[in-house]
Amino acid sequence: MDFPPLAWPAELYDDHFMLLDESSLPDAVRHIRIDDCKGAVAAIRAMQTRAFGQLLTVFYALILTARKASSAEGLRRAVEAACEDLNASRPTLSFQPYTDKVRAWTLDALEAGDERPAETLVGRIMEWLDRIKTMRLNRARLAAGLLEDGDTILTHCNTSGELLLAARVCRAGGKRLRFLATETRPYFQGRLTAWELSRDGFDVTLIPDNRAAAVLSAGKCTKVITGADRVALNGDIVNKTGTRQLAMLARRFGVPFFAFVQEPGTTATGEEVPIEQRDPVEVIRFRGKDVYPAGTDAFYPAFDMTPHPYITALITFEKILKPADLPAGWR
Questions:
Q1: 1 in any annotated domain
Q2: What is the per-residue pLDDT across 158-190, written as a single tens digit (0 to 9) for each?
Q3: Is the pLDDT score of 264 beyond 80?
Q4: What is the rounded CA–CA span in Å between residue 318 and residue 172?
Q5: Residue 255 sits in which domain range?
Q6: Nearest CA to 103 among 129, 65, 147, 135?
Q7: Is 229 noted as a catalytic residue in this protein?
Q8: What is the pLDDT of residues 87-109, one digit of tens each?
């Protein structure tokens, strides 16, 4: 199955990569040239790439870093510095489990006396990215198994193409689906969801964030599916701000709530995850233009934590997990 643009939003070349600028969508499909780790960090911090796009940016930035190293010791130092810079770019969506992999692969190549350690490292990263692609397709198939013919799915933020992949699996199996996408202010990621689903031929309706309670109470959707930037061992998730209220409303009105998740690492509960506090100006302005009066105060935590009792099931890369199965179910 071909990956849609938001599911694999970058293309790697010898000395740079071209990254889909998600901040320009859907008005224009524009790509940013990234030449080094500094450019990758800037794109991540500016929200020009999001969710899986940020993870792909991290790996591609480390590939460029490796390719520019002129010696074994230079490779070690450059990878270490790049990993530190990338880890500091977003506090909630932690890249450390992935940068730690790259650090370990670097040391493996150096300690083995590899004559071309940079090439070996690049090969390891590319193999891992191929594995991630397979894992994401499998997770989409698992999600498709939770959906039924005639379902109307409410979603929040954007799942980097994975909900679309699941929808394609459903369509191939004869299941008809409808989608409702929240605006997801202040960055309006719902525009991305509406764009990618509609261009693939799916029935999608955009709703204001503050319409969710009315939609759920009126029985106008049958399932809620979101992504999750982090998940804890007990099943708590941390995702784009506004996810918690959807999960609580879904529970109140008897609608199943599902989330795409990665591995939890050692995080015991969602309370342990730091919540990124974005610049309040991002609420006051949109694409550089003030939309509120000068001097208006704003508060913008970019994520919130949804406690596991409000979650029906977690969609992992390998299986469907219910909170009651955790933490043992991770093994």
A1: no
A2: 999 999 999 999 999 999 999 999 999 999 999
A3: yes
A4: 21
A5: 146-330
A6: 65
A7: yes
A8: 999 888 889 999 999 999 999 99
